[in-house]
From TrEMBL:
Keywords: Hydrolase, Membrane, Transmembrane, Transmembrane helix. It comes from Calidithermus terrae. Coiled coil: none annotated. The chain crosses the membrane at residues 20-45. Residues 89-188 form the M23ase beta-sheet core domain. One of its GO terms (molecular function) is metalloendopeptidase activity. Signal peptide: none annotated. The keyword Hydrolase applies. The lineage of its organism: Bacteria, Thermotogati, Deinococcota, Deinococci, Thermales. InterPro entries: Cell_wall_metabolism_enzyme, Dup_hybrid_motif, M23ase_b-sheet_dom. Pfam families: Peptidase_M23. Its EC number is 3.4.24.-. This is Murein DD-endopeptidase MepM.
Length: 231
């Protein structure tokens, strides 16, 4: 029986390449794409955060005490006045000066430079979060979680600058909350970004850090541009 003769393939420019060589080249390319460590398997663009050392309050304006003029939160970290049935409060709730839903749509800003690791609706564990933005900040080595957002203006993998707008104040999933920003400082990565430790104080203290203490004692944040609500 006569064997089939494989003729060389002529490429552009007149170069003749044996068929078997093209086959090996194709297999090599497929293997490179399948290998996680291969440069071909990595994203073309990767976020490389360069900490600037700048810090910003996540909202401006924020509600202030009528007597002292100092900024205040509606609910604080592990607040004893928070409804017990809802568990331990993991962060702080920030609201506009006029309270209620008057800050709906107010810009929410990045605490400092970082990389977005989550952006969008919370998972099935706790849909009441609504939209979340979670950012890893290599400077202070913490994550921030901004919750109950109406609009999400960033995407996963994006580098954000200190003070950059990342979303707007919302009312949580299906509008179940009065408009406000829930803001967390996370020091230990939880199982999911919709995490809530309920009554587990040990897990709360291992996973979270008091955002008010961080903002008023650890760093010196400046105000982002003041929001002017459209009338």
């Amino acid at each position: 029986m006569l064997k089939a003769v494989q003729r060389p393939v002529t490429l552009v420019g007149g170069l003749e390449v044996p068929t078997w060589a093209l086959g090996l080249a194709a297999l090599g390319a497929l293997a490179a794409l399948a290998m996680p460590q291969s440069p071909l398997a990595l994203p073309i663009v990767r976020c490389r955060v360069k900490p600037s050392g700048k810090y910003f309050w996540p909202m401006n304006p924020i509600k202030r005490d009528r007597l002292t003029g100092k900024r205040i939160a509606d609910v604080y970290f592990a607040d004893p006045d928070y409804p017990r049935k809802l568990g331990l409060h993991t962060g702080i709730d920030l609201n506009g000066p006029e309270g209620g839903d008057t800050d709906l749509g107010q810009p929410v800003h990045a605490l400092t430079d970082g990389e977005v690791v989550f952006a969008g609706p919370a998972g099935p564990n706790d849909r009441s979060w609504g939209n979340l933005v979670v950012i890893w900040h290599p400077g202070p080595a913490v994550w921030t979680r901004s919750a109950h957002l109406r609009d999400v203006l960033v995407r996963v993998g994006q580098c954000v600058a200190a003070g950059q707008q990342i979303g707007t104040v919302g009312k949580g999933w299906n509008g179940i909350h009065p408009a406000h920003l829930h803001f967390d400082i996370i020091v230990k990565k939880p199982a999911g970004w919709d995490d809530w430790p309920m009554h587990d104080r040990k897990r709360l203290e291992e996973t979270y850090y008091d955002p008010w203490k961080f903002l008023t004692e650890k760093v010196k944040p400046i105000d982002p541009p003041e929001w002017k609500k459209e009338r």
